[in-house]
């Protein structure tokens, strides 16, 4: 393959002939322009030039290779023709660096909310929008959090809790916490090391990481970063091309992954308006209102850029096929109803995750925690319970060890935390993740003592009052006239102080 | 008929003799002054002059002809005597134009709320007050929205949703969406083309428009703007003079209208204080407090200007008469109770709309969505269900395709959207309406996939949890002393950043 | 009785010998100082001088005569010695007058809330504090309002509502509204004509006024202001001295009062902190913190100034005595439980008012509307229902005709409005009260049409959904960390407009 | 023991050899550094110098003696070598003094909230953080308050309430109120006289004080300050070394303490982030972000400084031992479930306190008031009720006499108030506590009259409606797009006033 000079690439800088450079390789994307899930506009911005910087944090490493026919792989760029661009430090870069310098010291981070508050400030706006957004009115994402606060504790007293132990076994793997790191996409948007931050912290603290299909780091990079014997799970978006999926799954098994979490709640990615909005503002600031030109589709945020990798035809019929290609545990991630929980059980899966995808898919779906109650009841009726061969996990809205304990009391085997760890490394890298695990550990110690449970198995249904869990009620809209006129009471007033 | 010079009109500029010009015709309205639903004051403002500009957006085109005896139609104005007035561009006009220029580009409009937010800014205050207002404390209008958020999804997974189809048939007419454009009055307040924006967009996208009795455009203008075979419905306020109504209904049928939606929740128009308030401020800004002068009635906003066209004596006895004058489907719009739903069914109607008139009539009425549950239960007991000869529609508070899907799951045949489309053309004309339809289409595609329904008929009751729908509870008033003293928790604090 | 020169009064200006002038009469109040319910401090402020201005709005006209032994009535002041004081117009007076001039014109007052909003601005602070305050945390006063919003309408359609009639009969007296004017004390704090504003407006509009024991105007002044045959009720605080009460009741009956409403919820007046607070601020603004001096009691607001007129020993044993001294209807005002409602019925009363004294007595008492449901159920079980000899009234929190209709649907005979009318005359005098009645009339017309009731008797239980009335629930305290970090969604953004 | 010069102490100012002076005694704390519950950093700050000022308000007086082996007690400081340091008056001191001078006069303090509002302003930040903080999200602390507002009164009327009596007997001791002063730690943080303020005020007003294990004053100082025969209770944290506990308990009994309240809800102190946060800000203001250095643990607020005195192994097995060492009543403080209430009863205890430690331990625990209903029901089933040998107390969130009455109606014998009195003396010393008692007395008088109860025994279950107590429900997260666009109604507008 001969080397291509940058000047040759620069000649293909139009919609009619569009070449781009990614990681020193040249690709002809002219025919791909209209198929690009993220829209053609963003590609055309780099037409005839190097798109690596924009490409990298948003795409799985091999995305372009997988999606572009081999004949469009033009060749390698001639390094001698590449002018080393001194990267401009923008005002935004400087501002972000100043904020990074002003972060609270890590030992002032007291809970998982703190990471989120820091990340909100130091993340590039686009990354914050992608990570924090959820679908439609973002009701489900908030309900996920709120649901935990409708479960109340019934703590037991006078048990000798000198030593408490919150370690457990998840799908046959030892875990120092009843918590696993759930898959979240595109970690490099938040930190240059991306998902490796999680892998390294997980190794150090005996926690299990679920590797996302849409990681910014490649699967192998992540596995390579793991320590010997470190248990890993894999989250799977099923590709329209089943051969790609098969190869991917079997490769994962070969590399030692213990369980396969097939995402079943995303036949199409949700509309995440915060993410879409951010993109719009970015592109068109200061622009004049334009009449909508048919045929030109706007870019629609990061979410849409990754959705074509997902097959909407995935169905129950595919489960036996998965069973046939792998011996890993098969877990369905994104179950919401007792009906589907029973179907999963009958299909021979080893478990389910009660999840609504962090509120990013179907808005006004109920929370995993709420569904847990109904689903555990249904599984109890259907078969043995607890069932060592069928695990029920929950994710969504978890911020505290006390949340986890509530889920365990209601029947969950373990709980997934996604954004919590994502924000931890986005704000403080690997050390942030380690601090997050430490905080959870401190919280587990305290809460297990205070609830009167010495081991995970002593966390029982009687320790919670979940009677309010199903009552997500609505309030009569307020009487603004009355409330506007009513003068609230105040407390006693100080005199003018001589300060 | 001889032509009348403007100077002759100008001589009749008092309460004792009051002539006005509307659309180049001269009318003697002296005796009509006290009957004018909008009050005499607004007419007297134009006494002896041309009232067209004020008349036009508020009145149905033929209002003056229908309401003034023929002998008061003085004649046509002599065009040679008319001084062409160069319309002054006011500061308010300039301001509004500047805001129009600054509107968000249409492709940044991501949901139906966005149209409302834009309309709120760019609409003349009077139009916004008329469109957005509802009755009394505006509790029902907000409850309409809130009710949808008390219904939660129970999404099904692993169904092959490669292709999903949300088209349907409404009263025998094809519709590309399970949504119709519900009637709203006085479209020209929002856009010079008024209701025609809807007609044209509906034609283009296969959606059904319900023509309002109180349109700013005449009935025939709207029908003329429709494309061949485009299905149209008609909303009817029943006039005190049944002959006028008969003529109107039979004309509509002749012109191809498919169904007649008789409004039954408005024997009198509601008190819409936001609208009334706007009028007051308008008239009396800067005025000194005046003792109330008996006999002089203030103008009471746009709503009152149109209420005399409605007959409060309309009753069940009239239904057979309607049946006798038309073969169109007859639908009662504004049903709230199972009792009345059964009466409508027994009276031989083809359907009902569960509606509280967008919260504009009886405040603290329950929402259509809430009533749907009880009414479907009653209809099931009474006859076959679903019943191809009796449709149940819902309107009020709909902003998302997910709202529509909830209503369909609970038994509705289709859902009406009024203000959503009204704000769409008020802010962006016909293109706004088209964009609104596109947005709904995108949302239907996503939501049907995510809920696991491939067609409208696969949307079933099990897909929603409506257990909270009836719980519009009240909250203990807050303890202001406690809340005022309690210091909320905050997150970790940044150091002073060097920005 | 010889005339006393002002100089002679001035000699008694100390705690040891304290004379004051009220309405040109001289009184020796030395021994009364410590008994004064409002504290001695306020009297000492006027020692040796004229206290009329401070006395008048707060005391019933004959309070000083009734409470001071005859030998302490020194005599009449010598008018020749009185220096006509030119009343200083203070900054506060000027400010208040400027605000009065700027009031919204009366025809812009659209509902009863508006009067309250105006009164809040134009009333002297002390008057506002006294009128608007309620006990403890003011939870019940707000709950009174909130309760109405937990009752929802089930409107009926297609009834001929051309003419609707909301007049009724209350305890045998005709009333143009199903509403009476409930007693509120000290009307002159709000307007120089005090309660007469109500009497005159009631005469003009056929409404019944309940005269308060603690009126600023004397009982006879009020009755004298009534038109011939105008029905009046009397609210009674029972005095420790039953002879005073007997004289008062029999005088009222002689003067034609139709019904006696005995207040039973106030054996002691509630602590109304807003009122107490106002007094404190008034007295001690700018003062230095003083150690509490035992023995010196602070004034405690207007409420406390009137409480000694009320006998805490009043009990069921007194009811037969009342029956023995009068033939007027006897109604117990302030009933909250079915148990007491039955006792009242069995004691031969003609009715009860379900009231919590406008939230001014026992805080966190339930609302009259909520109690209505339980009490009507109990009365139904006990005897005939509806019972022409036993009426159930409700008051508290009523602001709209729709509130009244809800109470009637649930079984009330009529509804009392206190503060609504009080604020009406405080802001606009008699015309305010008339406007308030007009507004209610307009609201009754609209609401009865919209609910489908042509007469009061057609307002039936099926027209309301009161299922949420008993659910005054509490909400989980919010997760401030989560809510503080969560970034709410916004709508599309405008570009910078050229304004 | 020879005297040690300050210069000799100053030589031991490092981690390798660390001496400090406390109350003129010298201690070698080198080996204790890592065991110090409050962290080593705070000790090292005073290494080689006098730590008394920092030590005093935070530690029980004999803490250092009890925890440091005798061989580390180096000796007494040579007073001749001590340089009298003129205490610097800092800006913060001056500011606090100015605020103290500007406090509202005590007679303007109308309720217990007022004390809290004043304390919030005048307390040193660290003290406020320690006193006001609660665990995790501080949900339970607020729920404690909110629970009372979910219980509503059903007041009875027409009972002769001329005289009402709210005195009672608590565990055999007379009390002028059905309230006792609950234990709170470290009173000297708020006032130099610490817990003695409570002792003296309790003596004067016939109220019972519960002495805290972690008082700033020593146990004997408090008992010495009591008047003859003044009843006292003792709150107990059980030490890991049972001999210390035994000595302490038996000493208390000897000195006349009547009842022992063993804290059972604190095997480990809760994480109180407000307190931890305060510490962080204090230490590191202006510091640069540092990478976390492993091995160095940050100080974690006042709470952690006292936690090692508590034994997490305390269990039911210890109860017989307590019974064997004392004849005092034994009460378990911190019971939350009927199961444990029954166990306490069967273990021969004389009572329980339904408490969640003021929200400072397990967050999202239910309130004592809510648990009261279930626990009383369980006790009724188990044995005689009311049971003179087994009392049920409640604490948490009490601010008003009406709260107490609600708890009594639901079955409590008396109610504990902790923070209310703590804030009273923090803001006004002993007089504050007396004022607090007076306020409660006034509130009891009013409320008992208004509810119709003349004695404590007449407060019966029928007087409250607790049906909402268990409903701590969650609300659907709000639709921010809708709410942001909805324009709330306002009242009529004033014209521009000429002020």
From TrEMBL, chains A, B, C, D:
Q: Which residues form the Cytochrome b5 heme-binding domain?
A: 1-78
InterPro entries, alphabetized: Aldolase_TIM (IPR013785), Cyt_B5-like_heme/steroid-bd (IPR001199), Cyt_B5-like_heme/steroid_sf (IPR036400), Cyt_B5_heme-BS (IPR018506), FMN-dep_DH (IPR000262), FMN_HAD (IPR037396), FMN_hydac_DH_AS (IPR008259), L-MDH/L-LDH_FMN-bd (IPR037458)
Query: Which controlled-vocabulary keywords does the entry list?
Result: Flavoprotein, FMN, Heme, Iron, Metal-binding, Mitochondrion, Oxidoreductase, Transit peptide, Transport
Q: Which Pfam families match?
A: Cyt-b5 (PF00173), FMN_dh (PF01070)
- Catalytic reactions on record: (S)-lactate + 2 Fe(III)-[cytochrome c] = 2 Fe(II)-[cytochrome c] + pyruvate + 2 H(+)
Query: What sort of enzyme, by top EC class, is this?
Result: oxidoreductase
Annotated GO molecular function terms are:
heme binding; L-lactate dehydrogenase (cytochrome) activity; metal ion binding
Q: Which domain of life is it from?
A: Eukaryota
Keyword Nucleotide-binding part of the UniProt annotation: no
Q: How does it assemble?
A: Homotetramer.
Please state what the protein is called.
Answer: L-lactate dehydrogenase (cytochrome)
């Amino acid at each position: 393959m001969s080397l291509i000079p940058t000047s040759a690439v620069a000649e293909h800088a139009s919609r009619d002939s569009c070449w781009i450079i990614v990681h020193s390789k040249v690709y002809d994307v002219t025919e791909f322009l209209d198929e690009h899930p993220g829209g053609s506009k963003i590609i055309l911005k780099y037409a005839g030039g190097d798109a690596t910087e924009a490409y990298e944090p948003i795409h799985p490493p091999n995305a372009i290779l997988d999606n572009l026919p081999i004949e469009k792989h033009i060749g390698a760029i001639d390094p001698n023709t590449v002018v080393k661009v001194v990267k401009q430090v923008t005002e935004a870069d400087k501002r972000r660096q100043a904020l990074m310098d002003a972060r609270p010291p890590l030992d002032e981070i007291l809970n998982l909310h703190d990471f989120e508050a820091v990340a909100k400030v130091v993340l590039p706006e686009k990354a914050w929008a992608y990570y924090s957004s959820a679908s439609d009115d973002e009701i489900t994402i908030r309900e996920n959090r709120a649901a935990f606060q409708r479960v109340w504790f019934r703590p037991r007293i006078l048990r000798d809790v000198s030593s408490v132990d919150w370690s457990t076994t998840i799908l046959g793997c030892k875990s120092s916490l009843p918590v696993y790191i759930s898959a979240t996409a595109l970690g490099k948007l938040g930190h240059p090391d991306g998902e490796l931050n999680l892998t390294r912290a997980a190794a150090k603290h005996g926690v299990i990481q679920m590797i996302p299909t849409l990681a910014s780091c490649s699967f192998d990079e992540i596995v390579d970063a793991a320590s010997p014997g470190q248990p890993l799970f894999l989250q799977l978006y099923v590709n329209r091309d089943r051969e790609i999926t098969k190869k991917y799954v079997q490769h994962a098994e070969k590399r030692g992954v213990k369980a396969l979490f097939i995402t079943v709640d995303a036949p199409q990615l949700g509309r995440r308006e915060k993410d879409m909005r951010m993109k719009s503002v970015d592109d068109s600031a200061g622009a004049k209102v334009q009449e909508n030109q048919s045929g030109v589709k706007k870019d629609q945020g990061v979410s849409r850029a990754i959705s074509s990798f997902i097959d909407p035809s995935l169905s129950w019929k595919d489960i036996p096929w998965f069973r046939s290609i792998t011996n890993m545990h098969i877990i369905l991630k994104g179950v919401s109803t007792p009906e589907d929980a029973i179907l999963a059980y009958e299909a021979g899966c080893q478990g389910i995750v009660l999840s609504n995808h962090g509120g990013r898919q179907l808005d006004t779906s109920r929370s995993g925690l709420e569904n847990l109650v109904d689903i555990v009841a249904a599984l109890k009726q259907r078969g043995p319970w607890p069932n060592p061969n069928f695990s029920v996990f929950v994710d969504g809205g978890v911020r505290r060890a006390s949340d986890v304990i509530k889920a365990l009391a209601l029947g969950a085997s373990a709980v997934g935390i996604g954004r919590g760890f994502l924000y931890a490394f986005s704000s403080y890298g690997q050390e942030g993740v380690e601090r997050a695990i430490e905080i959870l550990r401190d919280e587990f110690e305290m809460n297990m003592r205070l609830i009167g449970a010495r081991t995970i198995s002593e966390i029982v249904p009687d320790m919670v009052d979940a009677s309010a869990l199903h009552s997500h009620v609505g309030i009569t809209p307020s009487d603004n006239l009355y409330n506007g006129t009513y003068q609230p009471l105040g407390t006693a007033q100080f005199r003018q102080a001589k300060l």
